[in-house]
């Protein structure tokens, strides 16, 4: 089975993430969307909300599983028997950052990282921009799937 892990904080899930997931799921038998838990990070949305946003967005896709994890991503890949890590790239800065992580992961394990370029119409969207729009009362609905909403 070709199982891939798509790790992230997804705070919140954006249309950029959605794009990578929808295209990435066609490449693998199973895609595990894994929300990393970092106790030192302050999140806008609770872990439960983030899980729900993703589960609702992909409820009709049987090849997608949603979970949470702590610790190193490569260790979690081993735990769930994932041989691939899926990552999205928006720009050259993303590539440089992700390349260093991919090389490190490859050094630590046999995990291969697969990169997909975010579709051009979504390459400007980031979770931090979405959070800033939300904090300032802007219309965030064109940046996230319909399953993401602010209370």
**Form type:** globular
The largest sheet is: 5 strands, parallel
The total count of helices amounts to: 5
Strand order of the largest sheet: 3-2-1-4-5
Q: How far is the N terminus from the C terminus?
A: 39 Å
Broad structural category: alpha/beta
Assigned CATH class: Alpha Beta
SSE pattern, N- to C-terminal: EHEHEHEHEH
The stretches of 5 or more residues where confidence is low (pLDDT under 50) are none
Mean pLDDT score? 95
> What portion of residues is helical?
25-40%
Q: Going by CATH, what is the homologous superfamily?
A: HUPs
The CATH topology corresponds to: Rossmann fold
- Percentage of residues in DSSP E strands: 15-25%
> How many structurally independent domains?
1
The CATH architecture assignment turns out to be 3-Layer(aba) Sandwich
Site (Transition state stabilizer): 17
Family: Belongs to the bacterial CoaD family.
Subunit structure: Homohexamer.
GO molecular function, one term: pantetheine-phosphate adenylyltransferase activity
Give the helices and strands, then pairings.
Elements: E1 3-8, H1 15-24, E2 30-36, H2 47-57, E3 64-69, H3 73-80, E4 84-89, H4 92-108, E5 112-117, H5 127-135
Parallel strand pairs: 1-2, 1-4, 2-3, 4-5
Explain what you see.
- The chain is an alpha/beta fold and about 150 residues long.
- About 35% of the residues lie in helices and about 20% in strands.
- A five-stranded parallel β-sheet has the order 3-2-1-4-5, sandwiched between helices.
- The chain is globular, with a radius of gyration of 15 Å.
